[in-house]
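Re-running the complex after MR caught last week's input typo. The corrected sequence lines follow. Everything else is unchanged.
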Amino acid sequence: EVQLVESGGGLVRPGGSLRLSCAASGFTLSNAWMSWVRQTPGKGLEWVGRIKSKTDGGTIDYAAPVKGRFTISRDDSENTLYLQMNSLQTEDTAAYYCSKGVGVHNFFDYWGQGILVTVSS
Amino acid sequence: DIQMTQSPSTLSASVGDRVTITCRASQSISVWLAWYQQKPGKAPKLLIYKASSLESGVPSRFSGSGSGTEFTLTISSLQPDDSATYYCQQYNTYLTFGGGTKVEIK
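Corrected-run output:
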């Protein structure tokens, strides 16, 4: 059974950093296109970034609002996806989901339970 | 960026009603569109992909249609369990989500 479990969220001051983890089970993370998606009451669902599978080159792409501040990585030995978030702003406050892409497409058949990140002074 | 516009933003219907939600793309996305259902406190759940393909395990009362810039999600006979927010998502160019449609049961 495929499962995605996020951890690492919490309260952080503006300008601070946080690293989210997404532990995957039931499939091999490096064989999937994985994304981070965030959700706020005001802006709805917003794609954050994606890492392609190893066989597709492992290319990483980011949405404009987070490019240069957020970094996606993967630990194949731990079957875990990461989102390193630096220079956090209040607008980054959201529930963050890791999600598994279907094949080489950017739609998602499995999602984590979501983890809340609050950026506030 | 491709913008996705859903309508209506909310709708209220009775059990057994036929319900239709519309999603418009700011430019052609061919058939690269997915629909999700989200209940409060839960992650989105995939219903439809490639505009009209039903995800395994999803009840057949859900259907999708459209291509290009205009798409619809139809629930043929609304059930109490269908009370949720529905989102469209394009994946033609990276990906973007619509603003959501909240479906309430009268």
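None of the earlier attempt is carried over here. Chain B has a mean pLDDT of 97. Chain B touches chain A at residues 32, 34, 42-46, 49, 55, 87, 89, 91, 94-100 (CB under 8 Å).
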